[in-house]
Design goal:
Mean pLDDT: 82
Largest sheet: 4 strands, antiparallel
Order of helices and strands: EHHHEEE
Shape: globular
Number of helices: 3
Number of domains: 1
CATH superfamily: Gcn5-related N-acetyltransferase (GNAT)
Strand content: 25-35%
Low-confidence stretches: none
Strand order of the largest sheet: 1-2-3-4
CATH topology: Aminopeptidase
CATH class: Alpha Beta
Distance between the termini: 10 Å
Amino acid sequence: MPVEDLAIRLATSDDAAIIAEHRARIFQDTGRFDAKRSAAMMAQIQPIPRPMLASDEYVGWLVVAVGGAVVAGAGVQNRRLLHFDRPARAHCPGGGMLQVTAVRSAA
């Protein structure tokens, strides 16, 4: 697929099911889960990304092909950490950290 046929967009809370599917399929693609366990994980975690996306706790990007099909995605989770006697980092003003949570291509 030519790169000219692809666009990157921010994920929204409406994309929670896609994000849950990507997350579960990473475990299946790497052989850690079989199809049944991957489907169970998808169903269990599907409600979780919606409020995380709405609050910016999770930020995701989706690669969309012409016609609207999502062909890849990536995301980071902004996690707040409990710190003692440590200044906040410039890139995470609240003293948190960013954790890459999923990168998956449908190809």
